[in-house]
Q: What sequence folds into this?
């Protein structure tokens, strides 16, 4: 369906949305943007004005700083999709596929995301204390080969493959790990190398058949931290990602309390004074802070993201009700955001906009109001909502609402890639609507503010077009390249070049018979920083 259809279907809840956005606690007082066919594109000045600086009060500026040219438009928006491996939800589709079949499925997913203008993949690589990559710490995953501990044949490293193919398409690769789940019910037999058998004292059996590591155990903390850092050290990833599983959901254990009596009594016997709930929260908090610090100490540019349950506590904000993750999962997600331990925060806001007690705009506005140190807040949204007729157009509406609330650094994470690839009308509605054009991942200046060098390029002339080719310098950290161009009587347009698509042909005259007027180029590094905008001399190439 087209974007106009989506927009008209969203009108029935527009009045409610506007009212909520005026009432919520978000920092912005702007109205929600309602253009359904374009990503956030904001005209900028093409050159920074250089102010006179008193010699005594300010350090002398370098010529590089003085000559820095801002890109002419803002084209940043995070667009990611979760790819789940547990229970073979998304990839691989079965646990008995050949290596070539696994690769073929992976390529199909990446090609789909590239075509639909996504720029990040969140791939689950540790679903149950196992590995979908080469590891000396944990066994090969049952969900990859059908047998725990069995490597793919012919051998390949799936994570290496995913990273290379994602980067070739200009997409970030985030590794998604479950820090405490030891065995999932769909994992069938417990392998001989599973932590359940190698370290039985570190795990607890739950009523639903799952096994869970005890977050109160120092050995568990050490083991899971080692797994995370092993990946960070050996793989060229862009981020580490945790989801909402900390202490398990109460339903997993038949509503019984988590069986951590041994570690709790050890804490008490050593003089611990916290309540059991506060002690459990501290166990999780300490682990989150530790992972954040260790990642940055190893590779400062690797982001750390968490996707907690969408409600912190009932009544926050007023009128919200639902499960209390603070008391049930012992996850103080608000604290992690307040402290800035994480680089991007993705609350799972899987409810429709007009579901008052779990309202999408109300919750997103509240989480953004808690973003006091200025990290990225990119909500997780539920693509499965579009399966019901009454929620047609909901996903595009939620993307637009997010842009209105998160106007400086917007973004959305999509659960999950399956419904997107299976629902052709949904995919078309995004491509024809809010994802009509590509976007860059927003920069993370607290990680790195150093801008890359202007990229090398070649220009060639033909009768009707100008051919531009990006020349990648292997010694530089350029991840993508952006070509901006403008015709007479028109606004700026752009194309993002990736490692596997380094060329662009720009017509000298557009379909409206307007003559090409300006062309410029920037480089983009691993953390989203853009180089100075370089305007190219194209006059001699024009007729």
A:
């Amino acid at each position: 369906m087209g974007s106009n259809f989506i927009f008209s279907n969203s009108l029935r809840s527009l009045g409610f949305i506007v009212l909520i956005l005026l009432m919520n606690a978000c920092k912005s007082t702007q109205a929600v943007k309602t253009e359904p066919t374009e990503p956030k594109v904001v005209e900028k000045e093409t050159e920074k004005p250089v102010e006179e600086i008193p010699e005594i009060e300010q350090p002398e500026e370098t010529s590089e700083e003085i000559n820095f040219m801002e890109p002419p438009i803002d084209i940043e928006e995070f667009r990611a999709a979760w790819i789940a491996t547990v229970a073979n939800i998304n990839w691989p589709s079965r646990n008995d596929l050949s290596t070539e079949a696994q690769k073929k499925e992976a390529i199909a997913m990446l090609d789909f995301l590239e075509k639909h203008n996504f720029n990040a993949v969140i791939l689950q690589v540790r679903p149950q204390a196992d590995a979908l990559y080469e590891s000396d710490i944990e066994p090969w995953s049952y969900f990859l080969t059908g047998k725990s501990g069995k490597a793919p044949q012919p051998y390949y490293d799936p994570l290496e493959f995913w990273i290379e193919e994602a980067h070739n398409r200009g997409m970030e690769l985030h590794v998604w790990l479950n820090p405490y789940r030891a065995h999932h019910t769909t994992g069938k037999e417990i392998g001989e190398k599973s932590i359940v058998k190698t370290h039985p004292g570190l795990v607890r059996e739950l009523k639903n058949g799952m096994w869970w590591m005890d977050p109160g155990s120092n050995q568990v903390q050490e083991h899971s931290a080692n797994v995370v850092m092993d990946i960070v050290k050996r793989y060229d990833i862009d981020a580490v990602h945790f989801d909402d599983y900390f202490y398990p959901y109460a339903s997993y254990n038949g509503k019984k309390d988590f069986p951590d009596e041994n570690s709790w009594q050890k804490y008490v016997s050593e003089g611990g004074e916290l309540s059991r709930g506060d002690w459990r929260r501290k166990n999780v908090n300490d682990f989150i802070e530790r992972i954040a610090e260790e990642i940055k100490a190893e590779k400062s540019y690797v982001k750390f993201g968490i996707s907690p349950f969408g409600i912190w506590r009932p009544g926050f904000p007023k009128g919200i009700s639902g499960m209390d993750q603070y008391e049930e999962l012992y996850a103080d997600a608000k604290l992690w955001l307040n402290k800035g331990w994480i680089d991007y925060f993705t609350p799972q806001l899987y409810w429709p906009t007009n579901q008052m007690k779990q309202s999408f705009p109300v919750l997103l506005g509240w989480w953004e109001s808690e973003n006091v140190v200025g990290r990225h807040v990119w909500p997780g949204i539920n693509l499965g909502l579009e399966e019901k007729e009454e929620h047609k157009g909901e996903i595009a509406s939620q993307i637009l609402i997010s842009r209105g609330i998160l106007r400086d650094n917007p973004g959305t994470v999509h659960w999950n890639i399956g419904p997107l690839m299976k629902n052709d009308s949904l995919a078309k509605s995004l491509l024809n609507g809010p994802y009509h054009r590509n976007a860059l991942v927003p920069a993370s200046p607290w990680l790195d503010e150093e801008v890359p060098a202007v990229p090398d390029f070649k220009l060639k002339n033909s009768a009707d077009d100008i051919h531009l080719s990006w020349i990648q310098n292997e010694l530089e950290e350029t991840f993508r390249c952006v070509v901006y161009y403008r015709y007479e009587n028109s606004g700026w347009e752009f194309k993002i070049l990736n490692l596997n698509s380094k060329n662009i042909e720009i017509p000298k005259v557009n379909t409206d018979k307007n003559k090409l007027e300006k062309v410029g180029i920037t480089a983009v590094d691993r953390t989203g920083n853009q180089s100075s905008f370089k305007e190219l001399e194209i006059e001699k190439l024009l007729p």
Residues 1-64 have pLDDT under 50 and may be disordered.
